[in-house]
Amino acid sequence: MTIGIYQISQISCCRIVYIGSSNNIEKRFLAHRSTLKRGIHRNRHLQRIWDKCDVEDFAFELLEETGLANKIQREQFWIDAISPHCNIALAAESPM
After folding, report:
1. Alpha carbon separation from 74 to 23, 27, 52, 88, 89 (Å, rounded)
2. How far apart are CA 95 and CA 2, in angstroms?
3. Whole-angstrom Cα distance, residue 19 to residue 6?
4. For 20-46, what is the mean pLDDT?
5. Nearest 5°: CA angle at 46, between 34 and 20?
6. Is the pTM of this model over 0.85?
7. Of the N and C termini of the chain, which has fewer Cβ atoms inside 10 Å?
8. pLDDT of residue 96
9. Measured between alpha carbons, how far is 50 from 5 in angstroms, rounded to an integer?
């Protein structure tokens, strides 16, 4: 189980579309893929991009392993540094 910060990127455009954090990155990637494939992802922006592209056009990548204590702080660092296209909130506050 990996705790940390991750990104979802659209490969063909070399664009980072989403930054997130999780207490279990592997499980979170599976959840993202599952809801995106079924067309029910809660992030409408990310879902629209997913629907327009091929599934192979997306990369799910670990940016940084963290501890629980600094996970949200580090997520905010990456959101500020990268300005991802699909993050609805500009403030990190991950429930997972």
Report:
1. 13, 19, 30, 17, 15
2. 16
3. 6
4. 94
5. 80
6. yes
7. N
8. 42
9. 20
Q: 10 Å Cβ neighbour count for 71?
A: 20
In the structure encoding, which two tokens stand for residue 7, read together? Answer: 């990104």
Whether residue 24 contacts residue 2, with contact meaning beta carbons closer than 8 Å, is answered with yes
DSSP result, 1-12 = ---EEEEEEETT
Task: Give the whole-angstrom CA distance, residue 65 versus residue 8.
Answer: 16
Do 88 and 19 meet the contact criterion of CB atoms below 8 Å apart?
no
Q: What residues are paired with 20 via a beta bridge?
A: 6
Q: Provide φ and ψ at 80, rounded to 5°.
A: -65, -40
Give me the residue label for tokens 């909130």: 89
According to the model, what pLDDT value does residue 8 have? 93
Which amino acid is it at 80? D
